[in-house]
Amino acid sequence: MKYKELGKTGKKLSVLGLGCMGMSSAYGTPDDTESIATLNYALDLGINFWDTADIYGNGINEELISKVLVPNRDKIFIATKFGFRVRGAGNAFVGGETYLDASPKWMRQAVEDSLRRLKIDTIDLYYAHRIDPNVPVEETVGAMAELVKEGKVRYLGLSECTPEDLKKAHAVHPITAVQSEYSLLTRDVETEILPLTQELGIMFVPFSPLSRGLITNKLDVSSLANNDFRANLPRYNGEYLDNNQKLSTAFAEFAASKNCSPAQLAIAWVMAQGENIIPIPGTKRRNYLEENVGAINVNLCSKDLELIEAIVNKHPNIGPRYSSRENKFVKK
Ligand SMILES: NC(=O)c1ccc[n+]([C@@H]2O[C@H](COP(=O)([O-])OP(=O)(O)OC[C@H]3O[C@@H](n4cnc5c(N)ncnc54)[C@H](OP(=O)(O)O)[C@@H]3O)[C@@H](O)[C@H]2O)c1
C-alpha cells in the first residue's frame, strides 16, 4: 500500500480507501460474513481509510464496522456522516421518505448515535452528508466545530457542497475533506469544486468512482433486484443503459490492452486527476477489494488519458446520475 498525507494533519491515509455503504444498503443483499472478512482483508492490505454514514442501513453499517474497528482502532481512520433522516417505513435508498436535517440540534443527537454504534470515543472525520437548504452552512459547521473542541470528532468534511458553501464553511472552521461523486461518468466537480479543494489544501474524496459498478463491465443490470438502489437510476435504464453498456465494453477493451481490469483502470483514472484525491471504491467482497487495490500499480500516461477521454466522448448519452428523488438533495 502507498500512503498520502491528509492535508497538513500529519495523518497518513492509504491512497485508496474503502466505501462500506454497499455492505449494508443500496446494492443487493447484505452478506455480513463476507463483509467482515472484507474489512479484515482491507486491514491486511493496509487500507486504513474507511467510509460509512449513519444512514447506511439506518445505523446497521456503523454497527457492522465496529466489529473490526474496535479491536483495530489505532490502525483505521474512520469517516462517517450525518444529515439524512428517514420518516416512516423503508430506508434512505428505497421506499423511505428521506429528508435533510443538518441542524445543530439533530447533529448533537446524530454524533452520539454514531459514536455509540461505532463503539468509539472519537470519529476521525465527520461529514455533513449534504448541505441543508434550511440551515446556513456556517451554523452547521459552527456546531461541528464544537464537536472538535469536545474531542468527539477530529476533522470536518462536507459532502456534495457548492463552492460557495465550501468557502463559507472553511472560513468558520478548516474543512479537511470534501466528498462528492466523481468518476469517468460523473464529471461535474471538475469545473469548480476540485480546483477549489486544491487551492484550499483540502482532500477530495470521490465517491462512486466505479460509477456504482457500471464501468466495471461486470454488472448484470438485468439481474438487479427491485430493491437495488440502481434499478431506478436513469443510467441503468433505456437508452442511457444502452449507451453505458457500449461505453463500458469499449473501456474494458482498452483496459485489457493495458493489462488491467476495467475497475482498476477506472480507479487509476480517478487517482490520476490530482494529488489531493483519495477515492473510496465500495465493495463487500474480498476478491473485488484485492482487484481494486491493483489500481495502485496502473500507470497512465497522457496518451492513455486522451484515449480514455475519446472512449467516453464517443458515448455521450450517459444520462443523469440521479433521479429527481436524489437530485433534490444536491444544492446547485
Ligand atoms: N457522500 C455520498 O453521498 C455518497 C454516496 C454514495 C456512496 N458514498 C460512499 O462512497 C463509497 C463508494 O461508492 P459506491 O459504493 O456508491 O460506488 P462504487 O465504488 O462506484 O461501486 C460500488 C459497486 O461496484 C461493485 N464493485 C466494486 N469493485 C468491483 C470490481 N472490482 N469489479 C466489479 N464490480 C465491483 C460493488 O459490488 P459489490 O457490492 O458486489 O461488492 C458495488 O456494487 C460508498 O461505499 C460510500 O461509502 C457516498
Give the helices and strands, then pairings.
Blueprint: E1 3-5, E2 12-14, E3 18-19, H1 32-44, E4 49-51, H2 60-69, E5 77-82, E6 84-87, E7 97-100, H3 104-118, E8 123-128, H4 137-149, E9 153-159, H5 163-172, E10 177-181, H6 193-200, E11 203-207, H7 238-257, H8 262-271, H9 286-293, H10 302-314, H11 324-327
Parallel strand pairs: 3-4, 4-5, 5-8, 8-9, 9-10, 10-11
Antiparallel strand pairs: 1-2, 6-7
Helix pairs in contact: 1-2, 4-5, 7-10
Bound molecules: NADP nicotinamide-adenine-dinucleotide phosphate.
Summarize model confidence as the mean pLDDT. Answer: 95
- Portion in beta strands: 5-15%
Relative helix content: 25-40%
Low-pLDDT residue spans: none
Q: Overview of this structure, please?
A:
This protein is α/β, with parallel strands linked by helices and 332 residues long. Helix 4 links the parallel strand 8 (123-128) and strand 9. The relative contact order is 0.13. The chain is built from eleven helices and eleven strands. The chain has helices at residues 32-44, 60-69, 104-118, 137-149, 163-172, 193-200, 238-257, 262-271, 286-293, 302-314, 324-327, and strands at residues 3-5, 12-14, 18-19, 49-51, 77-82, 84-87, 97-100, 123-128, 153-159, 177-181, 203-207. The site of NADP nicotinamide-adenine-dinucleotide phosphate has 29 residues, from helix 9.
